[in-house]
Amino acid sequence: MESLIRFGYIGLFIGCFLASTIIPFSSDILLTGVLLMGANPYIALIVATSGNWLGGMTTYGLGYLGKWQWIEKWFKVKPETLEKQKEKVDKYGNLLAFFTWLPFVGDILALALGFYKISPKLSALFMFIGRFMRFSIWTLLYINFGENFLNFISR
């Protein structure tokens, strides 16, 4: 069983990494599965947060590599539109990084933060905090409800 859990941690890391890139699926379900297998909740929390955060930073990095000319040429987005978007991203700055854990919009936020070159260090910090808080709540629910965890979340 111990080796199964070890592979569960590896799968959790890879799955949470991929879920935080452009592949849409729930890392919460992966975390739940590993916890229900009997994994240590604190190790699972660290593994899930690390994988998800690194996936988010990968998306940030892909955005950072992007060029305005590419967006204008391939997606036919006008420079004025990009300027307006940049103003909004600059206005909220790193606070947006805190919300990159949100389904659907989180990946877009991470990509935009990178594309508009918002502070990599602060983006990384706020992205980590947001994701850690998300998985902490999920893990605490599991710790507090134990066997009744699935009943609690399915209500």
Care to describe what's here?
About 80% of the residues lie in helices and about 0% in strands. About 35% of the residues are buried. The chain is an all-alpha fold and about 160 residues long. The chain has helices at about 1-20, 25-35, 40-65, 70-75, 80-90, 95-100, 105-115, 120-145, 150-155. The chain has one domain (about 1-155). It starts with a helix and ends with a helix.
How are the secondary structure elements laid out?
Blueprint: H1 2-19, H2 27-36, H3 41-65, H4 68-75, H5 79-92, H6 95-98, H7 105-115, H8 120-145, H9 149-153
Helix pairs in contact: 1-2, 1-3, 2-3, 2-8, 3-7, 3-8
N-to-C series of helices and strands = HHHHHHHHH
Give the terminus-to-terminus CA distance: 30 Å
Mean pLDDT: 87
Total of domains = 1
Q: What integer value in Å does the Rg equal? A: 18 Å
Brief descriptors of the model:
78% helix, single chain, 155 residues, mainly alpha
Please provide a brief summary of the model.
The chain has 155 residues and is mainly alpha-helical. The chain is 78% helix and 0% strand. The protein is built from nine helices and no strands.
